[in-house]
Prior knowledge:
- The chain has one domain.
- Helices cover 75% and strands 2% of the residues.
- It has a two-stranded antiparallel sheet.
- Strand 1 and strand 2 form a beta hairpin.
- By secondary structure, the protein is an all-alpha fold.
- It is globular, with a radius of gyration of 22 Å.
Amino acid sequence: MDTGLFLLSWTPVVLLTFLAVVLRRSALELSVWGFVWAIVLAKGFYDTSLPVGLMSALDGVLTTLPLLLVIMGGILFSNLLVFTGSLDRIMNWFKRGAGDGIGRNLLITFGVGNFMEGTGVIAEPVVAPMLRTAGVSATGAAALSTIGYAGLMSLEMAGIIITVLSLVTGLPVRDLGLAAAWISIPATVLMAMSAPLFLEKGPEGRRGFIPAIGVGLLLGFSALGIVWMGALPVSGAMAGVLVIVLIVVSGPGRMGFPAGIVSDLAPFAFLVVCLFSVNSVGFLRALTFDRLVFAVNLIPVHTIIFRPFFSAYIYIFLAFFMTVALQKVSGSQLKTVVGTSLLRGWRPFAAMALFGAMGQVISYTGYGPGFIALDAAHNIPWIISRGLVQFTGSFYPVFVPLLGWVGTFLTGYGVASLMLFGQLQVQAASVLGTSGAWLAGALAVGSSIGSISSPFKVALATAMVGATGKEGAVLRMTIPLGIIASLLVGVVVWMAA
Length: 497
C-alpha cells in the first residue's frame, strides 16, 4: 500500500469539508471545485487518462439523471403546494393533531420523513418545505429533512439497500437486515438527539431533547422488531407510521378532516400509493423493475439501467399535475410557478449533476484507455478501503461506518458506498474473525448517516426552502455531526464484534 496515495485519496473529502465548513461555499461551488480536483487527481496521480476521466464524468451525469428529474419535479411540486396554500393547510392540520411545535416538528422530521423514504419517496422535497412552513429556519429545515431518516435509511427504500448489499457481498438478506437493524438503533438515537439543535432555541429546544430521544428509540426498536418478523421492505415505513400515530395519540388528537384537506392530501396519497405499489406488489414490481426498462452503456464497465415507471420522478410530476387540477390553477398561475421553480432549481440541478460526475471519476480511477483493464493500486475506493484495513488492524470495525459515510459524502448515493466497499467487509471479517454481516451492516448504516453530510442531498433540501446558496451553512453543522455519529456507531460495532 502506497501511503502517499492513501493520504492523497482523502483529499476530495478534505477539500469539500474545508470549502463547506470553513469557507461556507454553496453547493454549486463545491461541485465545481470537487469535480475539477477529481479530474486532476485521476490524471495527475492515479494513472487515469483524461478521456477515461471525462467519459466517467459523463457516465456520472447520466447515472444521476433520475435523481435530477426527482429534484426538478420536487421543486415544481413543493412550489405549487406553497403557491396554492396546500402546504399551510396541511401544516395546520398537523398542528391540531400533534399539539406543540416540538411534537409537530418531530412528527414531520421522523414520522413523515421515514414513512416517505421507507416507501421509496425521496423525503426532502416534502419534509423540508413542511418544516419551513411549520416555522423552522430554512437551514434547520434543510438539515432536518435528511437527519430524520438518516439513522434508519439502510432499512428503507422498500428494502432495496439491503438487497443490493446482499448481491454485492453474497450474504443472506435476513442476516444483513437484522445486523443493520441492530446497528441502526444507536444511529437513530444519535440523529434524534441532534434534532433539537436545529429546532427552537432556548428552553423550547432543550425541552425537545427527551421527546426526541424517545422518538429515536421508538424508531430503532420498532424497525428491528418488524425486520425480525420478516417484513424488512416495510420496516422503515412502518416505524415512521408508529411515530406519527404515537405523537398524535399523545397530543390533543383533534385532527379530524377540515374542509379541503382531502384535496390537499390527495396528491401525497397518490404519490405514496404509486411508489408503495411498485415496490411491494409482486407483478407491478416485476413489470416496472424488470420489464419496462432500458439500458445505456456509455462506458463498457457500467450499464446504466433506467426504470422510469419504478423511479419516483414520473409520479412526482403526475402528483404536480394532479394538484394543478384539484386546486384549479390557471394557466397564468402555472406559468408563474414553473418560472419560479426553474429560477430556483437550476443551481441545485447543475450542482448535483457535477457531484454525480465527480463520484464516477473517483470510482473509475485506475482504469486504462478504453476501460479495458483496472490497476487496483491506482483506484481510489480500493486504496481507501485497503488502507483502512492495513492501518487500523483490530480497530477496523470502528471505522467501517465512517467508510460508508465517506462513500455517500463523495458520491451522494448510499448504494454507491455498498458497491465500492461492500465486498471488502466480507474479506475483512474473515481476517478479523468476526461476522461479515455485522461489518456489512455497519457499512450500510454509515452510508445512511452520510446522507446528512452529502452536499448532493443538502443541495436538494435547500432548494426546497429557498435557501439555495446557503448549503455551506448547513454542511458546517452536518459534516462534523456525520463524522462524530459514524465514529460513535463504529465504537458500538467494535465493542459488539
